[in-house]
Design brief:
This protein folds into two domains: about 140 residues, Orthogonal Bundle (Double Clp-N motif); about 170 residues, Clp, N-terminal domain (Double Clp-N motif, Orthogonal Bundle), CATH 1.10.1780.10. The longest helix has 16 residues. By secondary structure, the chain is an all-alpha fold. Helix content is about 55%, strand content about 0%. Strands 1-3-2 form a three-stranded parallel β-sheet.
């Protein structure tokens, strides 16, 4: 699975993680080792710094395995023998080596592998962590703290956030800016939408209601974030919307989606009354919805554009849920555009 020169400085624990990753890939009947398998390998090395950090943040092996199973599914035949790393997994390992170098460590341990995984930002492992409500910067901070509190003083700069993820994504906006209203029992505004403030004036009443429903779905699951899965649940609330018609025509019902989401990521442990923010993938889906409206020469953003954004994003839990229910994402796109053009 790897060349000896690159892995000379790997600790025994880090080497075991690679072995576990290969075993996880074979368990899924995948003919490759991706970042998702590396994440599972890290969780299996239970006494390591990486596993401790992840467990402290609520990431458990069984839950992570379920999320990954829904995102990418299982292969259709048993894979024997040694299998190779995909380019993104190789990049994560290269970043792990770089993290060790930046921290002036003469070894590469599980902690560096974890730092490498979250620094790339685009792998399935990151998508799985985000769907579980894990803040990537918190993973980094906790990992450095676990190494040594002094590590924070000399912390190397984090890799630049891809342009598709707003640098100010965590900045809240006022409820009046979204035009949303909530009851007085602790409902919080949706955050992380600062980049889209200008476009929100073009969101239809129905699209704004989808965001409210998504937040309510997240709260009903006791999740402290709004992910693509909650946006999908929000879309199905409005029976007269194009998005609902498309999904209904494809045999999707709200209860099926909710059951799939609950099976995948489960209920939270307590009710969160703090502000809820969109995950990076959910923000990306909203950004793509705006782009879909522009591509179709529409001067508004409706639920149908949100659905197109979700399926175009393609790597979030929502896409995984739809695929697990036997829905072809390209077919969702074609039917949405077909129904819209027929109006």
């Amino acid at each position: 699975m790897h060349d000896n020169e690159t892995f000379d400085k790997f600790t025994e624990q880090a080497r075991r993680v690679l072995v576990y990753a290969q075993e996880e890939a074979q368990g899924f009947q995948h003919h490759y080792v991706g970042t998702e398998h590396l994440l599972l390998g890290l969780l299996r090395e239970g006494d390591s710094i990486a596993a401790k950090v992840l467990n402290d943040l609520g990431v458990k092996l069984g839950k992570a395995r379920s999320v990954i199973a829904f995102i990418i599914g299982r292969g259709d035949r048993i894979v024997l023998g040694e299998i190779g790393l995909v380019p993104r997994a190789k990049k994560a390992i290269q970043l792990a080596v770089d993290e060790a170098h930046l921290l002036n460590h003469d070894y590469v341990g599980t902690e560096h592998l974890l730092l490498g995984l979250i620094r790339d930002r685009e792998g399935i492992a990151v998508g799985a962590l985000e769907s579980l409500g894990v803040n990537l910067e918190k993973v980094r901070t906790q990992t450095l703290l676990a190494l040594s509190p002094s590590s924070l003083v000399t912390e190397p700069p984090t890799a630049p956030i891809p342009a598709s993820i707003p640098q100010d994504a965590a900045a809240p906006i006022a409820e009046k800016d979204l035009g949303l209203t909530h009851n007085e029992e602790g409902k919080k505004q949706i955050n992380g939408m600062q980049k889209y403030i200008d476009e929100l004036d073009n969101f239809t009443k129905q699209a704004k209601k989808v965001l409210v429903y998504a937040q309510e779905e997240a709260q009903s699951f006791q999740h402290h974030y709004v992910g693509t899965e909650h946006l999908l649940l929000g879309l199905i609330h409005e029976p007269e919307d194009i998005a609902v018609k498309v999904l209904t025509n494809l045999g999707i019902e709200l209860k099926q989606v909710r059951s799939a989401v609950e099976f995948m990521i489960g209920q939270g442990e307590h009710i969160g009354l703090r502000e809820i923010e969109l995950t990076p993938r959910a923000k990306k889906a909203v950004e793509l919805a705006v782009d879909e409206a522009h591509r179709l020469n529409h001067d508004y953003i409706g639920p149908e554009h949100l659905l197109l954004g979700l399926v175009r994003e393609g790597a979030g839990i929502a896409a995984g849920v739809l695929e697990s229910l036997g829905v072809n994402l390209e077919k969702v796109r074609r039917q949405t555009i077909h129904i819209k053009s027929g109006q």
